[in-house]
Amino acid sequence: MTTFSRRQFLVGTCAVAAGTAGTVAVTWSDLLRRAIETPFTADTPILVLVTLYGGNDGLNTVVPYTNDAYFAARPTLSYAPDEVLQLDEGLGLNPALQNLRTQWDRGELAIIRGVGYPEPSRSHVRSMDVWQSGSPDKPGQTGWIGRWLDSAEPGPASVLNIGPIAPLLARGNQATGACLDLAGELTGLRRALSVFGADEKTDTTAQSLVRAAFRADDEARSRLSNKIPYPTRDRWDTRIRGQLALVANAIRVGVPVRVYSVSLYGFDTHADQRDQHETLLAELDSALRAFLPAVQDYRVTVAAYSEFGRRVGENSSGGTDHGTAGPMFVIGRGVRGGLYGDEPTFTDGDLAVTTDFRDVYSTLLSGPLDTDPEQVLGKGRSAIPFLQS
Amino acid sequence: MSSRSEQWLRTARVLRRAGFGTTGPEVDAVVKLGADKFIAACLAQPLNADPGVVQTPVPDLGPASAPVLTQTQLRTGEQDPVFREQIETLGQWWIMRLVAARNPLSEKLTWIWHDHFATSAEKVRNAPALVVQNETLRAKARGDFGVLLRSMIVDPAMIFWLDGQTNTIPVPNENFARELLERFGLGLDGGYREADVHEVARALTGFRLSTLERVSFDPAAHDSGIKSILGSTGNFGAAQLPQLIVARPESTTFIVRKLWRYFASDEAPSQAVIERISTAYGSRRNISAAVRAIFADEAFAAAEGTVINSPVEWLIGALRALKVPVYTAPAAQSILNALAALGQSPFYPPDVAGWPGGRAWLSTTAISVRARLAQYLADSADVSVIEETAAGDRVDAVGYLLGVGQFSTSTTHVLDASRKDPRKLVSLALTSPEYLTS
After folding, report:
1. How far is CA A283 from the centre of its chain?
2. Which of A387, B34, B127, B421 is buried most deeply by CB count within 10 Å?
3. Contact at CB, B368 and A210, closer than 8 angstroms
4. Which residues of A271-308 are buried (b: 16+ CB within 10 A; e: fewer)?
């Protein structure tokens, strides 16, 4: 059970500085309309950012199963060599990540190790601000994708967050990414209609607005229905599987969005971590297992990150506390699979940072986002060769 | 278009911020009494002197079905039918209390501390424990913040929520310690270091929950060694923590800022305001004094319209102003369903940081749900005072009824177009920007 979830971050980043623009709320109907008007071609590169909120325990995600210090530090939490999905260099994936293992075998999974930044913060809000702004020194003003939006393509629909509030990463100085409230799409209107039970009177204005919205939606959907593979809206949920399902459908009908943002909460595993963590990783894995084949004909790159890893040692509650560095995953047909970054050593109970997260961003900016990274991240960044050129 | 005086408008805002909405006759009464006197009287009134409180006694939920929830039960997501019924009853009770309470400030403060010390029934699936926490917050809401903080350190629901009962030597669980510093006592920039988190975790070791309603202490599981916390050294235990925390000036600034955010404005207060309110809060950390100072401050009056009302503020405020009857479990449950659709369920804050507030309330879902609800409220309300007013004065009348007093030109145009239909007029006013903010 998480003690830390999404809203916490959104409030931390909702303290919006003057000058940052507000978000645009879009509906699925809006997206379909844009897909009809200005569709993307199938070779437009697209980036899907997966934010894992709470601090994913990297050490049990990419497991150093030949490292004795790992076993010593985690008497109940460690995974034995025969439990992990072995990859290379003494590292194995958490057993819940079966599909990621398949991506690895295909050469489409890059694991970047020891990712973090200097003097890491162990506060969820502060560290997530750093990661989303791309700015360890002055986090919390604008996001790296927001600044990309400022410098590159016009139109807020170029960045879409699946969720009701724009995360910091999508906020620029002039423009901010759009938001699609999946819960609203699925339940809000329906729940509004049923909230007071059968005896309510219906008002013509509200009812007609609702009907008009559904009509516009139906019309757009019928024009594109042969392209929407799965699942029907009735089966979507608002968690990552549903979010990625919507993203897949959007990509397949050519919605003109370059960057999608989805999220999974619950990684703040201070107690009884093992099952909880495996369940979350399985949820991520299964969402990707459905998503990746659906977009295999498109140039999609998925990048997953969290605001910090966790401590090397387990605590007395069978969990782990906030740590520092962790792995990032980048997945896609344009990825050069393999291990990147130096394997982090255990230093004073924490994982050493061996890769600056901004170098990962820099590579993604010049890759699928086709932009000079300096405009977004400033000088001094190096590329990491996890993308095919 | 308004015929309301500046003083009326200011008083109306005090009432709206001090409670949940207001209505014309209430504003008139407090204008006569004086806003500061009113606030002071609310802060001083004992709980059982409020007829609305007496009419809505805390329900007897019966025993919880399981004394202590294990994490295993949580993971499988078992729905405990006893708990489900109890938590529904508890939620319904609080709605009825929020609507019935005459003293707006006492329940508002309880609600505020519920947000500040956010503990969710999603994990703490024990309704009697949640009742205890709620009543503790209510009882301690207005006094010394250090006393309130201490009560939460030993609160069973809080301990369970933040893994306190599994926080033991040799390797303490830092969850509670971190939230105590970052969320409850000092704030993110409150001047504590990572080492302080670790040391506080040591100090918090040893609590046990034999049942979720009772905390016990096991000295054998407690780290009684010397600790260095926030610049002081000693073999501190949980008992010493509140004083160590609230003695820091950062704690005062943090709490003052939060109270300002809850009562006065979504925008951060200036340093001058912080200093004024901190002076009132004083070395006794008196919450009532700080609250009184906030309402009396010139910056409060200047902050008109800078708070986006939360769903609870909006909906409970409308129920109270329109005198919609919420005396039965089904009626209260409808209100709970509505609040769930708007994203704010009592006893279910999204996480330990509470509800995000501000702009977060303006999702597309909320807009459509609110439109629907406004209609229902207008249909259930007593609108005779509007009906009995001449059509040309009805916009003013609805402003008076809802304690808004003054609409913008554009809102007035929209409302005036419906002046022939009192219920429609009310429903539109309820979704106006002036009613959604305060």
Report:
1. 13
2. B127
3. yes
4. bbbbebbbebbbbbbbbbeebbebbeebbbbbbbbbbb
| Burial state string for B330-353 with b = 16 or more CB within 10 A and e = fewer than 16 | ebbbbbbbbbbbbbbbbbbbbbbb
**CA–CA gap between residue B347 and residue B130 (Å, rounded):** 8
Residues of A (301-340) whose Cβ lies below 8 Å from B:
313-319, 321-322
E-strand stretches of chain A: 25-26, 46-53, 62-64, 85-88, 91-93, 109-116, 159-162, 178-180, 259-265, 300-306, 326-332, 338-340, 346-347, 350-351, 355-356
Which residues in chain A (208-267) have CB-CB distances under 8 A to chain B? 209-210
Q: What is the pLDDT of residues B334-382, one digit of tens each?
A: 899 889 888 899 999 988 888 987 767 766 567 777 888 898 899 988 8
A7, A15, A275: residue with CB nearest B351: A7
What does the alpha-carbon distance between residue B237 and residue A43 come to, in Å, rounded to a whole number?
Answer: 62
Of A337, A260, A254, residue with least CA distance to A44? A254
Contacts with B357 from chain A: Cβ below 8 Å: 11
Chain B residue closest in CA terms to A11: B356
The answer to whether B377 contacts chain A (CB < 8 Å) is no
- Position A136, amino acid: P
* Token pair recorded at residue A212: 């008009």
Task: Please give the Cα distance from B431 to B342 (Å, whole number).
Answer: 13
In 3D, which of B113, B102, B120, B104 has the Cα closest to residue B138? B113
Q: Please indicate whether, in this complex, the C-beta atoms of A1 and B74 are within 8 angstroms of each other.
A: yes
Point out the least confidently predicted range of A38-42, A218-222, B168-172, B195-199: A218-222
Distance CA A136, CA A134 (A): 7
Q: How many helices (H) and strands (E) does chain B have?
A: 25, 4
Buried b (16+ CB within 10 A) or exposed e, B231-256: eeeeebbbebbbebbbebebbbbbbb
Model confidence pLDDT, tens digit, residues A353-366: 999 999 999 999 99
C-alpha to C-alpha distance for A26 and A164, rounded to whole angstroms: 10
